[in-house]
Amino acid sequence: MPGVILETTGRKSGRPRRTAVGGRAVNDTFWMVSEHGEHSDYVRNIQANPAVRLRINGRWRSGTAHLLPDDDPLQRLGNLPALNSAIVRLMGSDLLTIRVDLD
Prior knowledge:
Oligomer: single chain
Protein name: Deazaflavin-dependent nitroreductase family protein
Shape: globular
GO molecular function: oxidoreductase activity
Pfam families: F420H2_quin_red
Strand order of the largest sheet: 2-1-5-6-7-4-3
InterPro entries: F420H2_quin_Rdtase (IPR004378), Split_barrel_FMN-bd (IPR012349)
Helix content: 10-25%
Organism: Mycobacterium bohemicum DSM 44277
């Protein structure tokens, strides 16, 4: 799903932080895989405060992010958009599945 923006709260600054992400919304859940796991700033922000917003198809939705270290990220990528999944597989160093339960 191109064009999805993830907004977290900066763990140090408390300010909104936005980053483009790839993934897929399934009903009221958004699935994505972080390329660099807990080394990604947005993942560290989620660890400090799991309340997030996602801009999907031009509409902001609030939700709660959950890091899923026991989920198989390579298997998860098989259910996500092909182009994004290929890039994550190619560039990723420490894959981590993230589930966002949308309000």
